[in-house]
Automatic annotation (TrEMBL):
<keyword id="KW-0349">Heme</keyword>
<dbReference type="Pfam" id="PF00067">
    <property type="entry name" value="p450"/>
</dbReference>
<dbReference type="InterPro" id="IPR050364">
    <property type="entry name" value="Cytochrome_P450_fung"/>
</dbReference>
<keyword id="KW-0408">Iron</keyword>
<keyword id="KW-0479">Metal-binding</keyword>
<protein>
    <recommendedName>
        <fullName>Cytochrome P450</fullName>
    </recommendedName>
</protein>
<dbReference type="InterPro" id="IPR036396">
    <property type="entry name" value="Cyt_P450_sf"/>
</dbReference>
<dbReference type="InterPro" id="IPR001128">
    <property type="entry name" value="Cyt_P450"/>
</dbReference>
<comment type="pathway">
    <text>Secondary metabolite biosynthesis.</text>
</comment>
<dbReference type="GO" id="GO:0016705">
    <property type="term" value="F:oxidoreductase activity, acting on paired donors, with incorporation or reduction of molecular oxygen"/>
</dbReference>
<dbReference type="InterPro" id="IPR017972">
    <property type="entry name" value="Cyt_P450_CS"/>
</dbReference>
<dbReference type="InterPro" id="IPR002401">
    <property type="entry name" value="Cyt_P450_E_grp-I"/>
</dbReference>
<keyword id="KW-0503">Monooxygenase</keyword>
<keyword id="KW-0732">Signal</keyword>
<comment type="similarity">
    <text>Belongs to the cytochrome P450 family.</text>
</comment>
<feature type="binding site" description="axial binding residue">
    <location>
        <position position="428"/>
    </location>
    <ligand>
        <name>heme</name>
    </ligand>
</feature>
<dbReference type="GO" id="GO:0004497">
    <property type="term" value="F:monooxygenase activity"/>
</dbReference>
Length: 501
C-alpha cells in the first residue's frame, strides 16, 4: 500500500453499491500503473477529462486517485465538503525519507497541523501583511540595484531578494549573514519539487524499497533523500536557535519569531517545549514554502515580458503616468488597474503548482451519485481550471486585458486565485505576502527596465518558447533575456534608490 492511511476500499462503506467516478481502464492489482502520468501529469489529466468527463478516478496498486477538472468540482469537494477533503496523503519519500514532516503543508489534517497553521496565520493574514510592506519595498529596490550591476544574474537576484524579505520578516535577519541557509533551503525545496507529486519516486509505490542501502547500484535517490533530510534539520533549527540566543542577549530585532517566542507559555510548564516546536515549525515553513514558489512566479513574469513586448509597454505607460519619475509604493496600487490585471495573468498563465498539493479523503463519501473511497488521494488540476478556454479565451496567450473592462478590473472574470493557490482549508496561507512581494518586484522592474529576448550572433532576437519544468513546483525552462535600463533617468533612479529606503 502507498500510504499509511486508508488505501483499502471497504465494501461496507459503499452500502448503496454506487459506481466509482469514470476513468482510464486499469488492470487487476496494478490498476492504472502503466498509464499513471509522472511527467507533467496536469497535461495528461487534461486530456483524460476530455475522454472521461470533469472528474476522473483510477487506482494504482490499490491506492485511489480522484482528479478534479473544473471549478465546480473543486468547489463542491474542497470547499463544500472541506471537513472530509483537507487531509494529506503521506508520501514515503517526502515525509519519511526526506524529513519534510515538520512542514505543516505536508502534515495530516488534525491538531498538529491546525496548531501550526494558526500560528502562521496570525502573522500572514490580510490585515497584518502590510507590516512587511517596508521590507518588501526595500527588497525590490535592492533587486533593481543588483540587476543594474549584473543583469545576467537576475535569477540569483530574485532568490536573494525574496530570501532577504522573508528572513527579515520571519527572523529579523539579513540574508548577507545567512546565505548558507538560503542555499540549504533552495536545495531542500528542489527535493520537494521533485518528490511532491504522488508517484514521482518508486519508493512511494513500493515502500519496501526504503531498506535499500545508499551504496546499492541505482540508489542515488536514497543518497539524495539523506542529504535533503540533513539539510532540512539544519533549516528547521538553526535560524530559530539564533533568534533565541539573540533574545537572551537582548539583540534580537522584532520579527515574527520574536513575537512567537514571547507568546510561548511559561517556560517551566511541561507544554512549553511543544509550544516552542509548533512556533519553530511555523517560522520555518514561511522560509521554505515561500521561496521557490515566488521565484518561479517572478521568473515567469520575466519570460512573459520578453515574449509580449506590447503588454510590457502598456504596463510601463501606466506606471509612468502614475509615478511621474519616482519608484512605486504600495499605495499606488489602486491607481494601477493594468498592473493588477498583469499580476492576475501572471498567476494564471504558467501556474507555479499546476496540481496544487494533493489532498486526501478522510472518510468514504457519496458525491453526485458516485462513490469516493476512504483514503482517496484528491487532486485539483489547477492548470486545467486556469486554461479553460470557456473561461479564458486563448488561454495560452499572456493577455492581462482579459481581466479588464472599461479600464477597471472586471470582477465578473474568474480570479485565477480560485485555483493558483490551492483549495479549501489547505489554501496557501502565504498568498497575501506573496501577492505583495510580486507587486513590489514586478512594478519596480517595469518602472526602470526593459526586458527583451537575447540576441543571436546576427543580432536577431531569439524566439522564446514558454516551456515549464515538470514537478510539484513548475519553473520556466532556462531562456535568455536582456534587462536594460529604460533611460539615463531610470538608471539614476535605481542608483539613488538605496538612499530613499
Ligand atoms: C506565487 C507564490 C505561491 C504559490 C503559487 C503558492 C501555492 C500554494 C499551493 C498551491 C498550496 C497548496 C494548497 C492546497 O493544498 O490545496 C500552498 C500551500 C502552502 N503555501 Fe503557498 N504559494 C505561494 C507562496 C507562498 C508563500 C510566500 C508562503 C509563505 C510565506 C506560502 C506558504 C504556504 C504554506 C504554509 C502552505 C501549506 C498550507 C497547508 O497545508 O495548510 N506560500 N501554496
Amino acid at each position: 500500500a502507498w500510504f499509511t492511511h486508508g488505501c483499502i476500499q471497504e465494501r461496507r462503506e459503499n452500502p448503496n453499491s454506487l459506481p466509482l467516478p469514470p476513468g482510464p481502464k486499469g488492470y487487476p492489482i496494478i490498476g492504472s500503473f502503466f498509464s499513471f502520468p509522472t511527467y507533467k501529469a496536469w497535461l495528461e489529466y487534461d486530456k483524460w477529462f476530455k475522454i472521461h468527463g470533469d472528474m476522473i478516478y483510477f487506482t494504482v496498486f490499490g491506492q485511489g486517485f480522484l482528479v478534479l477538472g473544473n471549478i465546480k468540482r473543486v468547489y463542491d469537494i474542497f470547499e463544500r465538503r472541506s471537513s472530509n477533503y483537507s487531509d494529506r496523503p503521506r508520501l514515503v519519500m517526502l515525509n519519511e525519507m526526506m524529513g519534510w514532516d515538520y512542514i505543516f503543508g505536508l502534515q495530516r489534517y488534525g491538531t498538529w497541523w491546525r496548531r501550526r497553521r494558526r500560528q502562521f496565520h496570525d502573522h500572514f493574514h490580510p490585515n497584518v501583511v502590510n507590516r512587511y510592506h517596508p521590507i518588501q519595498i526595500d527588497a525590490a529596490r535592492a533587486f533593481d540595484r543588483s540587476v543594474l550591476e549584473s543583469p545576467e544574474r537576475y535569477k540569483q537576484h530574485i532568490r536573494y531578494t525574496f530570501a532577504d524579505s522573508i528572513l527579515k520578516a520571519v527572523y529579523g535577519m539579513d540574508v548577507k549573514e545567512n546565505e548558507t541557509y538560503v542555499g540549504h533551503a533552495g536545495t531542500t525545496t528542489e527535493g520537494l519539487a521533485s518528490a511532491g507529486n504522488p508517484g514521482s519516486f518508486l519508493v512511494d509505490v513500493f515502500p519496501v524499497m526504503k531498506i535499500i542501502p545508499e551504496w546499492f547500484p541505482g540508489a542515488e535517490w536514497k543518497r539524495k533523500a539523506n542529504e535533503w533530510r540533513y539539510l532540512n534539520s539544519i533549516v528547521a533549527n538553526s535560524l530559530w536557535n539564533s533568534v533565541k540566543e539573540q533574545m537572551k542577549a537582548g539583540t534580537a530585532k522584532p520579527c515574527i519569531a520574536t513575537a512567537m517566542m514571547a507568546s510561548i507559555p511559561d517556560s517551566e510548564s511541561p507544554a512549553s517545549k511543544e509550544e516552542e516546536l509548533v512556533r519553530r515549525d511555523a517560522c520555518a515553513v514561511g522560509f521554505l514554502a515561500g521561496a521557490d514558489t515566488t521565484i518561479s512566479s517572478v521568473t515567469s513574469f520575466f519570460m512573459a515580458m520578453a515574449i509580449y513586448p506590447d503588454v510590457q509597454k502598456k504596463a510601463q505607460a501606466e506606471l509612468d503616468r502614475v509615478l511621474s519619475g519616482r519608484l512605486p509604493e504600495f499605495n499606488d496600487r489602486p491607481s494601477l488597474p493594468y498592473i493588477n490585471a498583469l499580476l492576475k495573468e501572471s498567476g494564471r498563465w504558467q501556474p507555479v503548482a499546476p496540481l496544487a498539493i494533493a489532498h486526501m479523503a478522510t472518510n468514504a463519501d457519496e458525491y453526485d451519485g458516485l462513490y469516493i473511497p476512504k483514503g482517496t488521494c484528491v487532486i485539483g488540476n489547477a492548470w486545467s481550471i486556469l486554461h479553460d478556454p470557456e473561461i479564458y479565451e486563448d488561454p495560452f496567450i499572456f493577455n492581462p486585458d482579459r481581466f479588464l473592462k472599461n479600464g477597471e478590473i472586471d470582477s465578473s472574470v474568474q480570479d485565477p486565485n480560485v485555483a493558483s493557490f490551492g483549495f479549501g482549508r489547505r489554501i496557501c496561507p502565504g498568498r497575501f505576502f506573496s501577492d505583495a512581494a510580486l507587486f513590489s518586484t514586478m512594478t519596480h522592474v517595469l518602472a526602470v527596465f526593459d526586458i527583451k529576448p537575447s540576441l543571436d550572433d546576427n543580432g536577431k532576437e531569439i524566439k522564446i518558447k514558454p516551456n515549464m519544468t515538470n514537478g510539484l513546483l513548475s519553473y520556466p525552462e532556462p531562456f535568455g533575456c536582456r534587462i536594460i535600463p529604460r533611460s539615463k533617468e531610470a538608471e539614476r533612479l535605481i542608483r539613488n534608490s538605496g538612499l530613499m529606503t
